[in-house]
Request: fold
Amino acid sequence: MHFFNGINYNKYNFDIMNKLCDYYMYMCTIYNKTVSLYGYCQFTGIAVTTIDAWKEATSEMSEIYKKLRDGRQNSLTNLLSSGKVNPVGIIA
Reply:
């Protein structure tokens, strides 16, 4: 087990968390919402500090952090190009 600042990275099953991440991102796409780390935390019940720690982890959980980070950028780009929402709010 790896411990970093008291956080146990093996507490979560990567395959399940990755599938939940994919489903969360899919739902954001369907409902024209922005992918965010906070939204994923609300969806899964994981603490924001845990997700933040994943970005510096050397474990496979860092892949989920990267996927959410990239998904946010892609969802913002898609919202801008769709023309369905006010671009001023997205750009800010």
Remarks:
- The CA atoms of residues 34 and 76 lie 6 Å apart.
